[in-house]
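Comment thread on ticket #2218

A.B. wrote:
> Attaching the input chain for the structure job we discussed in standup.
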Amino acid sequence: MKLQLILLWLILISSIGLAQELDPLEVRPSLATPRLSIPTNLTTVPVVNPGEYFVPPYVEDIPDDNFGELVKIGRNIFVNTQKYGKRYVGNGLNCTNCHLSEGRKANAAPLWAAYGLYPMYRHKNKEVVTFEERIQDCFKYSLDGIAPMVDSPEMEALVAYAHWLSKGVPVGIALPGRGFTPIKKTRTPSTENGEILYKTQCAICHGKDGLGYKYEDDRPGYMFPPLWGPDSFNRAAGMNKVKTAAQFIKANMPLGKGFTLTDDEALDIGLYMWIQSRPYDPRRSIITNIFMPPPGGCE
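C.D. wrote:
> Ran it. Output below, let me know if you need it in another format.
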């Protein structure tokens, strides 16, 4: 009897130890590996609190019908705007330069966290805007081009792609990972610190001159986009705001090492980017652009 109790006790102890070792709630790297539709060594999605963010459908799940064909066209425009949306683009950027991983990545302005919130009031426009009008602003400011008509083929395809990517998203709910990550400064941002950080953390990809690196083949656009200069976003773009740029940098840069810079360091880099030359704000006159301080400075 004692021997049986001892064996039972040993089995109980070993099972407890095994349960602790294989705790299903434990977060292990093998369970938190993100899945990308286009695997690439140049695209890494850092995992922060796995399971917290909405998971959009995978590219292989695009339906094989007329709607799916429109979604594929929209995805092509989004990923390679230089080729498929060129008639509306005025610089060298693609949509995915700001909306990382094809508009999927949390804290990089994912499409799935935006689509269900429109129509919405925007302080920039001082009015309620539709999702199509929001895309028009992206073309005018971030892509330094012209706004496509709301019924243009490119617009319809982009909206279809955003709609498909948001399948299952609750309408009117601000989801975790929307936009960029919140930050809080503890001191005044410094362009001197920003320059040092840029040279040590950013220049390897975006170039010492901040003008990026083009593809080595004949593809249009950039392998690593310009952060200033004539081929970058203009002064009216959201990324021209020091705080907005810092929020993006904090969560996503250096590439594959998001959340390694402090909030203040991200603001330093954002301020250093802001003082550089870039296309004018199309909402302002030439004289205002030349002689007045540019928008988007530190708040």
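A.B. wrote:
> Thanks. Noting for the ticket: The radius of gyration is 23 Å.
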